[in-house]
Amino acid sequence: MRAIVYHEYGSPEVLELQEVQRPTPTEDELLIKVHAVSVNRSDWEGLVGKPFYARIGGLRRPSSRVLGSDIAGRVEMAGKNNTQFRPGDEVFGEMGDYHGGFAEYLCTRGRAWALKPASMTFEQAAAIPQAGVIALQGIRTKGRVQPGQKVLINGAGGGAGSFAVQLAKLDGAEVTGVDNAEKLEFVRSLGAEHVIDYTKEDFTKNGKQYDLILDVIAHRSVFDYSRALGPGGSCLVVGGSVATLFQFLLLGPWIRKTAGKTLKILMVQQNREDLVSITRLCEAGKIIPVIDRQYPLSEVPEALRYLGEGHAKGKVVITVE
Ligand SMILES: NC(=O)c1ccc[n+]([C@@H]2O[C@H](COP(=O)([O-])OP(=O)(O)OC[C@H]3O[C@@H](n4cnc5c(N)ncnc54)[C@H](OP(=O)(O)O)[C@@H]3O)[C@@H](O)[C@H]2O)c1
């Protein structure tokens, strides 16, 4: 089968389209024929090997040769212990280890996967899993947004951010979206009342405060975030610099005790219930999985470059012929 393979961390040039062995499912796995796979920042991080957490499992060289984690495809074969889906089923979901998707076939247990709604294309379904579930857990399950609350989303114009802005609006929040100038009109079109260009203004230094900050690309100190939170407010960080994540781990509990504000890392739990829940909102037209661009499998390097260089508005999706 064809797959996009890499052997070292680096720029998109290290990626190559190659013929590789088709994987064979164990008795617990499904063999999936991939129809579409979306591109996430986690793929970019896995490509360049930064932040440092992207090297977990492969300090000097990538542990897995194929990136790609958000898949929509058809079950080709099911191991005898895997009874949740049958051959022919159209399914979608996220790879547990964020690898394997930029290929024509892959194997997965599919524990957190679901049947693809018939009304959705493979591309639309592939756009949902990682970004949609981050938004659902960040805004609803862990963020517990209430109508009228002030919510700020940092990285609002990207994959997870574009779902989070729409969901926070749906739940009645007043939303501020932060991203680069090129994406601010897009962020407004998703429903944000206020937008901030991060290259011009630091949202932690303008005197405004929020009930919830959801940051998908955090790099500030915990004290900056604490200052930008109103009384009893919460800040959830999803990804970003290792220094910031460490500060959240070490100082978050202390700030909670002394200032009554919650600063936590959102450890996203992949699960079918949340995937189905966010997908139902998409099916109902309440949330739109915005696809900025589509590329064929052979152009994964261009797709990753487009995202990595900061142009992607919403999601970028690969169609696998
Ligand atoms: N915690 C967990 O369990 C978990 C699970 C899965 C994924 N993750 C992480 O979640 C994150 C998801 O990101 P995503 O896929 O939504 O990324 P994305 O699509 O690349 O979106 C990130 C957005 O942030 C913008 N941005 C960059 N620097 C910024 C800054 N300093 N201030 C404000 N915005 C900035 C980017 O714009 P430009 O770069 O274009 O300017 C982009 O629009 C990744 O870091 C991933 O590793 C975490």
Shape: globular
Question: Strand portion, in percent?
Answer: 25-35%
Number of helices: 9
Low-confidence stretches: none
Ligand roster? NADP nicotinamide-adenine-dinucleotide phosphate
Distance between the termini: 12 Å
Look at the structure and give the mean pLDDT.
Answer: 97
Give the % helix: 25-40%
Largest sheet: 7 strands, mixed
Query: In sequence order, what are the helices and strands, one letter per element?
Result: EEEHEEEEHHEHEHEEHEHEHEHE
Query: Could you tell me the number of beta strands?
Result: 15
Question: Cα-atom Rg, whole angstroms?
Answer: 19 Å
Q: Which structural class is indicated by helix and strand composition?
A: alpha/beta
Describe this structure in words.
This protein has helices spanning 41-48, 122-126, 129-141, 159-170, 184-189, 222-227, 242-259, 272-283, 300-308, and strands at residues 2-5, 16-19, 30-39, 70-78, 90-94, 105-108, 114-115, 150-154, 174-179, 194-197, 210-215, 229-237, 262-265, 291-296, 315-319. The protein has 321 residues and is of the alpha/beta class. The strands form 3 sheets. Strands 3, 4, 5, 6, 7, 14 and 15 form a 7-stranded mixed beta sheet that branches. It has a 6-stranded parallel beta sheet with strand order 10-9-8-11-12-13. Helix 7 links the parallel strand 12 and strand 13 (262-265). It starts with a strand and ends with a strand. The mean pLDDT is 97. It binds NADP nicotinamide-adenine-dinucleotide phosphate (NAP). Residues 40-42, 45, 130-131, 134, 154-155, 157-161, 178-180, 183, 198, 216-217, 238-239, 266-268, 307, 310, 312 line the site of NADP nicotinamide-adenine-dinucleotide phosphate.
